[in-house]
Amino acid sequence: MLSPFERGLVAHLVADWLLQNDWMAVHKGNLRHPAGWVHAFIHFILLSWALGPLGGLVLAVVHLVVDTGWPLNWWLRAVKKCGNSPHFEMIRFWTDQVVHIAAIAAWVQFGPK
Question: What is the model's pTM?
């Protein structure tokens, strides 16, 4: 049997890696484009299965905001000071994944039971 965190992690990995297509990946940063909303809805469905409808909703909204790119870009430039790194895109990619997984862990740990 999977723990709530494990269910949330699997839901995230399936939504981000198996169900996200190029259209979503390219356009999800623009909230005026439907791609980000479709991607967030997929996260909502899978995370609702994993963590209940409230967890699915909260984490899908967090995912949508993170995927706009502005929170990550700010963090990487202001806090990590790696805006000029030749590895910026790889750092940004993995930071994005860590933020999403940390949000799931925070919900499981501190969200309503």
Answer: 0.95
Tally of structural domains, the chain: 1
CA–CA dist 112, 24 (Å, integer): 31
DSSP state of 32: T
Kindly report the backbone phi and psi dihedral angles of residue 95, in degrees, each rounded to the nearest multiple of 5, phi listed first. Answer: -65, -40
Residues in the chain: 113
Q: What is the pLDDT of residues 44-67, one digit of tens each?
A: 999 999 999 999 999 999 999 999
- In this structure, are residues 96 and 66 in contact, taking their beta carbons and an 8 Å threshold? yes
| Separation CA 97–CA 89 (nearest Å) | 13
pLDDT of residue 14: 98
List the domain range (segments joined by +) for residue 102.
4-110
